[in-house]
Amino acid sequence: MLASLLLRTKGYNILEQRYRCVAGEVDIIARKGELFVFVEVKARNRRTEALESILPRQRRRIEAAAEIWLSGQQSQEFAVRFDVITVAPFQVPSHMKDAWRPGE
Q1: Cβ of 99: how many Cβ atoms within 10 Å?
Q2: Which residue has the higher pLDDT, 39 or 104?
Q3: What is the pTM of this model?
Q4: 103: phi > 0 → left, psi -120 to 50 → alpha, else beta; which?
Q5: pLDDT of 10 above 80
Q6: CA dist 10 to 3, 14, 16, 30, 32, Å?
Q7: Which of 43, 26, 44, 45 is CA-nearest to residue 83?
Q8: pLDDT higher than threshold 90 for residue 73
Q9: Strand order in the sheet with 94-100
Q10: Contact 94, 41 (CB under 8 A)
Q11: Radius of gyration from C-alpha coordinates of the chain
């Protein structure tokens, strides 16, 4: 909920939360202009722990789920980005834009 609120305050329109398909799950799918953003939200005691917990296998699943979601969209003119929002106790959520690129 905090992650969605953070994105809304930054001008993103939340399109989906907890999107699930056969390929995997995406915590938040948002749009800002012609940019679709697929966001992984991680809550850990420390931000570094949250970032380190996103393994390559999980990134591939998120990318595959994003591809399925995008295939159902009518617009062909879009850019795609993968972000991470970390949530740690007693800290403001942190938004890391362009956290990884597909295939990394």
Answers
A1: 19
A2: 39
A3: 0.91
A4: left
A5: yes
A6: 11, 11, 17, 11, 9
A7: 26
A8: no
A9: 13-20, 25-32, 35-43, 79-87, 94-100
A10: no
A11: 13
Transcribe 48-65 into DSSP letters. HHHHHT--HHHHHHHHHH
- Give whole-number Cα distances, 11 to 6, 30, 72, 74, 97, in Å: 9, 10, 24, 22, 14
Please state, in angstroms and rounded to a whole number, the distance separating the CA atoms of residues 30 and 63: 15
β-bridge mates for residue 37, sequence order = 30, 81
Would you give the distance in Å from CA 5 to the centre of its chain? 14
| Phi, psi angles (nearest 5°) of residue 64 | -65, -40
Whether the Cβ atoms of residue 26 and residue 19 lie closer than 8 Å to each other:
yes
CA of 86: how far to CAs of 50, 70, 78, 102, in Å? 6, 24, 25, 20
